[in-house]
Amino acid sequence: MEDRTILEVKDLAISFQTFEGVVKAVRGVDFTLKKGETLAIVGESGSGKSVSTKAINRLLPKKNTMIESGEILFEGTDLLKLSEKEMQKVRGNDIAMIFQDPMTSLNPTMQVGKQIAEPIVKHKGVSKEEAKKQALDLMDLVGIKNPTENYKSYPHQFSGGMRQRVMIAIALACEPKILIADEPTTALDVTIQAQILGLMNKLKKELDTSIIFITHDLGVVAQMADRVAVMYAGQIVEHGTADEIFYNPMHPYTWGLLASMPTLDVGQTELYTIPGSPPNLLHPPVGDAFAPRNEFALEIDFHEEPDMFKVSDTHYAKTWLLHPSAPAVEPPEEVRRRKAKFESLYLGKGEINEMGGEALGSRS
Amino acid sequence: MRWEGKPLVAEAEKKAIVEISELKQYFNAGKKNEVRAVKDVSFSIYEGETFGLVGESGSGKSTTGRALIKLGDITGGQISYKGQDINDIKRRKDLLTFRKSMQMIFQDPYASLNPRLTVKEIIGGALKVHGMTQNSKERTKRVYELLESVGLNRQFANRYPSEFSGGQCQRVGIARALAVEPDFIICDEAISALDVSIQAQVVNLLKELKEQNNLTYLFIAHDLSMVKYISDRIGVMNSGRVLEVCEADELYIAPLHPYTESLLSAIPTPDPEAERKRVRTEYDPKYHHYDDHSNVGLHEIAPEHFIYCHKDEIALYKKKREKLLRQAKQQYA
């Protein structure tokens, strides 16, 4: 099979120098991204998901950031070794980013049309007139009505959803190979969120862009992702295809996340909760970082960090529960329900498979 | 707006603690930049229940909550709390009693706590204003009790808000609201700013505290999926109007108003298979042809189920409800 890997992050570790000491925000992260796929990175605030992706675009403050180890290979080049000038040719051109808050990430004193045209002039080296033409096309593409009139508008004249469309237009301006979306819809209403997510999926298909989608909302992940990586305390604790993570989760943290998500089914009244809060990464815990919050924690979890265990060719989880000599545990009810669905999806015995037909493999 | 048929307080044992009728709240009224945030809102909240109020940003749900707790004067309509018109509460002494009985938990846990005060001063302040404790020793003891009741360590009393995580700050906000032993609490997007796993913790805590202290909640949120777990009844708002009011479970089984349907269909569920098959509906207000607004209002479709519609549409909604309930029966059988 043709190698479609476009980005490879190897053993990335990042620390920040703060007044209180060194915060180990990212502690050895590996992942790959293939052409045309959406990788969702899930985790709570402070799990290191934003930091890992900002490192890809080298957007972390130089003053107090220490890249302890690792490589970020984009089409074979290590981005961490590029000079700032070389990096500027990549940033916004090959790898573009959409941020969470569309108000603070747009320039309030610049017309939105000009903000969309700016990267086109900068990276494509076309004339201003040509750039304006392309910007108008982009505004049309992302669903901004009356592009010619709105070209001269300022961000404050737009609603949150419209501003996020502007952000997407800027990010797409140079037809990037990778689009990093950092919680792009968290600040938006659900109906607007549905529109923006639909738009991103449509553009991904049309332009064959790879997307790294960062979010803490598992509902959004289910709608967007081909593959999912779950982060906790600066590490990826489980990764696999969307179906593997949602229907056959192995890590207790993933269990907790899935079980604490509210569903729209009637009758359920009590919500499962993960006790406690994430660890302080000023002093990363010994052993499995999730152990103190984990009701399934084993003795060894408090002494030794678990290895990445292989579940399938595409599915890995970092928990001692997968060790051959670990005791069998009973996951929460919600997870057992999901595992039953996984069997019906993948073992071809059950109504869902007959109805769905496209059970195996990721969505195209 | 009229209530068609029987009043909302249907059963004798359900006593309304809050009654809002035809509430209007305009900002810059009469000026060129007039904003009609709340155009026409009527609903009641029964004693001991949790009433969820949902809608998108700009729908007027927070404005309704703020009007209810007397943060600003209302433009029109009437709000009564425990049988008293809140517009008549003017004297400082009466206001104190009113505010002691009704408290609010805000959305942003950091912005709603004074960064220069310790947790002890924040919670103790409320106790002091209402004269609920005689001396500082008693006050400290009460603060410790409150902190423990919301699941925080008593050592936290001497810390500042900036030393806490969002979830912990929200717990401090809850402890502060509980300090004056209120009967009624307005939670204005109290969990929206928190992580998913922490949201579940806070929702469960709020439910527990409600049982312990016999509270009534108005739970304002934009997220229909969390609201379900805490609400007994839910009202759906859009552009300053309540469009649908019914019991919580019924809203998810038989959403009648097209706007409610679009809201429910927009929520992503953590289930890739379901997401692949998902059909989303969009709401277009032009769908209604209300040329003449004389017969348009909240109409009762079934007991405790109200829809904002034209009189002629009632039969249609009744049919729709029966069909949806039949489908649900099969699904949950």
TrEMBL record, chain A:
Keywords: ATP-binding, Cell membrane, Membrane, Nucleotide-binding, Transport
GO terms, biological process: peptide transport
Organism of this sequence: Alkalibacterium pelagium
CDD domains the UniProt entry points to: ABC_NikE_OppD_transporters
UniProt membrane topology term: Peripheral membrane protein
Entry's family note: Belongs to the ABC transporter superfamily.
Subcellular location: Cell membrane
Record domain ABC transporter: where: 7-258
Protein name: Oligopeptide transport system ATP-binding protein
TM ranges: none
Family annotation (PROSITE patterns): ABC_TRANSPORTER_1 (PS00211), ABC_TRANSPORTER_2 (PS50893)
Major place of residence: membrane
Gene3D superfamilies recorded: P-loop containing nucleotide triphosphate hydrolases
Record's GO cellular component terms: plasma membrane
GO molecular function, one term: ATP binding
Automatic annotation (TrEMBL), chain B:
Coarse class of the protein's main subcellular location: membrane
GO CC terms in record: plasma membrane
Highest taxon of source: Bacteria
Localization of this protein: Cell membrane
Alphabetic keyword roster: ATP-binding, Nucleotide-binding, Peptide transport, Protein transport, Transport
Record domain ABC transporter: where: 18-264
A single GO BP: protein transport
Pfam families on file: ABC_tran, oligo_HPY
Recorded GO MF terms: ATP binding; ATP hydrolysis activity
Stored Gene3D superfamilies: P-loop containing nucleotide triphosphate hydrolases (3.40.50.300)
Membrane topology of the entry: Peripheral membrane protein
Recorded family membership: Belongs to the ABC transporter superfamily.
PANTHER family per UniProt: D,D-DIPEPTIDE TRANSPORT ATP-BINDING PROTEIN DDPF-RELATED, TRANSPORT ATP-BINDING PROTEIN
Protein name: Oligopeptide transport system ATP-binding protein
Annotated organism of origin: Alkalibacterium pelagium
Taxonomic lineage of the native organism: Bacteria, Bacillati, Bacillota, Bacilli, Lactobacillales
